[in-house]
Amino acid sequence: MGMTSAVRLRVAGAIVGILSLAAAFRSAEIAKVLARDSPDPYRIESALARFAPLAARLPRGAVVGYLSDLPPGDRATLAFLQAQYALAPCLLVAVASNDPPELAVGNFIEAQNPAQLAAAQGYVVEADFGRGLFLLRRRASR
User: Fold this and answer.
1) Whole-angstrom Cα distance, residue 140 to residue 81?
2) Are residues 110 and 61 in the same domain?
3) What are the residues facing 91 on neighbouring strands?
4) Do residues 34 and 72 lie in contact, with contact meaning Cβ atoms separated by under 8 Å?
5) Averaged over 26-46, what is the pLDDT?
6) What pLDDT band is residue 59 in, cutting at 50, 70 and 90?
7) Whole-number Å distance between alpha carbons of 106 and 114
8) In contact, 55 and 91? CB cutoff 8 Å
9) Which domain holds residue 120?
10) Which of 46, 53, 104, 111 is in Cβ range 3.0-4.6 Å of 69 for a Cys bridge?
11) Distance from C-alpha of 82 to C-alpha of 48, rounded to nearest angstrom
12) Residue 48 sits in the same domain as residue 73
């Protein structure tokens, strides 16, 4: 005696439901392991600590320029996003030659001469916080 199509449909639905639950539990298990092994994959906590002294020197909510020595790409994007998050509510903007902000953040990862890179964009180093992090001020016009 064969199963009716309604019974087959219910059995198939039950199998799909059981497999879906098993996949959800497995996914949750993997997420727990990843969270335990890599609690901060984007290094936000270390960025907050690194940028804290600089953040204390910025006017709350200011628009601040951003300079980096990293070429465009994933690493540069991550460095910018870390800085933006750590310095909020300030707004970081790329330094544009036509109207640069008075203050800028220098986030130099590989630079041998950060002051020279800042000067090329019309800034002078106001404070060096170590580990490639600088507060820059726009050079006075002559």
Assistant:
1) 29
2) yes
3) 63
4) no
5) 76
6) very high
7) 8
8) no
9) 44-138
10) 111
11) 8
12) yes
Whether 62 and 124 share a structural domain: yes
> What average pLDDT does this structure show over 88-97?
88
Q: Which of 132, 42, 131 is nearest to 82 (CA)?
A: 42
Q: Which residues 6+ apart lie within 8 Å of 54 measured at CB?
A: 87, 105, 127, 129, 133, 135
Across the chain, mean pLDDT equals 88
48 with 25, same domain?
no
Judge contact between 134 and 114, C-beta under 8 A. yes
What pLDDT sits at residue 43?
A: 75
Q: Could you give the CA distance from residue 128 to residue 142 in angstroms, rounded to a whole number?
A: 25
Distances from the Cα of 37 to the Cαs of 28, 30, 45, 48, in angstroms?
14, 11, 15, 20
* 53 Cβ neighbours under 8 A, 6+ residues apart: 129
Mean pLDDT over residues 19-41, rounded?
Answer: 80
**Which pLDDT value is given to residue 5?**
86
